[in-house]
Write a structure and sequence with these properties.
Blueprint lengths: L1 H13 L25 H4 L1 H31 L9 H32 L17 H18 L5 H21 L11 H6 L9 E3 L16 E6 H4 L7 H8 L1 E5 L19 E5 L11 E3 L4 E3 L6 E3 L5 E4 L11 E3 L5 E3 L16
Antiparallel strand pairs: 1-2, 2-3, 3-4, 5-6, 6-7, 7-8, 9-10
Helix pairs in contact: 3-4, 3-6, 4-6
Length: 354
């Protein structure tokens, strides 16, 4: 008897509480699925044939758009003498439109196929454990076979073949664009990135105004965006963007005693003023966020940080090497000028360096 009382007490202790749950006499009933409504294509064979033609026509439109993207790449070249702002704009616009229409046509065609032609039966699948039984797994194989039969994928050759053609063609514009990653006209990328407009005696001017900078104008803690003076005189049709992308510099001033300088770079700065390339050595983003207290430059793309007080070495992030330093001095009028060009290639480190 005592054992029976103990068992009941244990059951009362371990019985879960009902909490705030309320049991009602008339719970909401499962309404079930609404009555099936046949589609127009289910009732009208001509409508189904029109839908089939629409689907494979969309897929062939995708093929045509992909071909147009490749044609636009050749019709609007952006190399050499053709590297004008107008050609660059047209190149990006028409290639982008071709790729966009190619992918859009595939998407619309696939949706129209599913909504108008594939089987329109509704199924309810009960939940089950992750690993099905062998019978269930065999049934899954049969379900795939039934899906193939109901969708008509294996039976409707025009739709299937046009879809394959559209998918294959949609990749071609992307492959075509890879051509721009190859060296242009046989030129060595390292040499191209090593040659900038900076040269001995080139004045440092503000970007984009083109105003020369005196050493006395650079206050401690300030940062200036700098380009070569000869670049400021170029037009956009004369390779301005290409040269600027390599020559942009950030000018910073701090107390001379705050600088850590190696013996070979003692004369690369002027009275605490240093100049470093703004092109991040990770993937080439502009490094332009300067923190005065830590003397760190931050790349906003992938958060690489460079210590300006110590040869712009990497202190954080994925960048693989310091920012190249531009040696500077002043001319007879007190304006900051370059002592020479960069001693190493600017830009991302994936280019092999000599």
């Amino acid at each position: 008897m005592a054992h029976e009382h103990d068992t009941q007490a244990v059951e009362r202790v371990h019985r879960p509480s009902a909490g705030l749950a309320v049991a009602v006499d008339d719970p909401v009933q499962n309404p079930g699925l609404p009555p099936h409504r046949p589609r127009v294509t289910d009732k009208d064979p001509q409508a189904k044939r029109r839908a089939i033609r629409t689907v494979y026509t969309l897929f062939y439109v995708s093929v045509a758009a992909s071909i147009w993207a490749v044609a636009a790449y050749m019709l609007f070249p952006i190399e050499g003498e053709y590297a004008t702002m107008g050609n660059i704009r047209n190149n990006n616009l028409f290639i982008g439109l071709g790729i966009a229409f190619a992918l859009l046509a595939i998407g619309i065609g696939a949706i129209h196929w599913a909504k108008s032609i594939m089987s329109d039966e509704e199924h309810v699948e009960e939940r089950h454990t992750t690993r099905g039984t062998e019978t269930t797994r065999a049934a899954a194989v049969q379900a795939f076979a039934a899906a193939n039969e109901e969708s008509g994928f294996g039976r409707r050759k025009m739709i299937r073949n046009s879809l394959f053609a559209a998918l294959v063609a949609s990749v071609i514009p992307g492959i075509t664009l890879f051509r721009n990653l190859a060296p242009n006209d046989g030129n060595d990328p390292v040499q191209l990135l090593n040659e900038t407009m900076w040269a001995r005696g080139e004045r440092l001017v503000l970007d984009p105004e083109g105003t020369p900078v005196r050493a006395s104008d650079v206050t401690i803690g300030s940062a200036f965006h700098i380009i070569p003076e000869s670049l400021a005189g170029l037009s956009h049709d004369e390779g301005y963007l290409e040269e600027k992308a390599k020559a942009i510099v950030l000018l910073v001033r701090m107390l001379p005693e705050q600088l850590t300088e190696s013996e070979e770079r003692k004369d690369w700065s002027y009275d605490g003023i240093v100049a470093y390339s703004k092109v991040c050595t990770h993937v080439g983003c502009p490094v332009a966020l300067y923190e005065q207290q830590t003397h760190h430059l931050l790349c906003p793309c992938h958060q690489s940080q460079f210590d300006v007080s110590d040869h712009a070495k990497v202190v954080f992030g994925p960048a693989a090497r310091p920012l190249p330093q531009l040696p500077i001095t002043v001319d007879a009028e007190g304006y900051l000028v370059a002592k020479d060009g960069f001693a190493e290639p600017v830009g991302p480190s994936f280019w092999e360096r000599h």
